[in-house]
């Protein structure tokens, strides 16, 4: 096969990036044309420099560069190994500016790098799996030849990739603004440490997901997981909460107050109950102080919420006494007190089942 038989778009892209026709033909002959396309579209420039050279140019110690490199999720290197490029040099300059201004202590900068690297790795993986270049291939993926795959990826990269950086910056700035306002509000309310927050936290678990997943094809499983995420994110954000993370068949969310958290839990239970694609869910909600770090939450309150979801019956929402104390005189909820439950490593916990009583009912509290 000659160059004239390849997609014009693919050949033009490779030539624009300085790839010689002989190299294209070699890649075509050994079946690596799709790797050549990916490396030219997304790979770093061909000129390489070492960590020692970056350190000499920027003044950032090699040890710091190595720790940053690991934190971002990249493999280790030797000081003289020629694995870095101009992009890495620019990143090192940015790091020096942050550290030099004194706004970010070294350990904090590395902590943020770990969050950034992990988040971007997940985003990149999700983008590729769901992209038209790969995800649309479905069950026929194994039958696609390298040339078709290279052409699809070339088209995808030309149409989609340039728009992503702007969207990432936009999303980051919106979330940064919201997080900054939450921090300002916390200080106005007397908080001494912005990392210690008082929030309601909830876990919502798909009932019987392990059994169901073993009965589904990969395509069917993808639809179930996608629907679970869609309903979770829509319901949580529309009620004023924030999804912290998806943990397999479980969603972890936080809300500023217990009232909103209960509304989220009940809304999710109702949504999943009506959804023909999903099974019922169960939820556990707790309220109190917790540690906020790296975009996640830690502490006894978080542990309690994660434990009580496992003892909730399908379709129900369990809440702790602290949550009940905040909502029993507000909203349209019915609370039913359960016998105190002993949770391993936590102790005895007072629990309540909460349900929506309708738009005109008042909160009622009854005991078993």
From TrEMBL:
EC code(s) of this entry: 4.6.1.1
Keyword Lyase: yes
Keyword Plastid in annotation: no
Pfam families: Ad_Cy_reg, Guanylate_cyc
Residue span, Guanylate cyclase domain: 200-309
Gene Ontology molecular function terms on file: adenylate cyclase activity
GO BP annotations, alphabetical order: cAMP biosynthetic process; intracellular signal transduction
Alphabetical keyword list: Lyase
Family of the protein in this entry: Belongs to the adenylyl cyclase class-3 family.
Name this protein carries in UniProt: pH-sensitive adenylate cyclase
Organism annotation: Acidithrix ferrooxidans
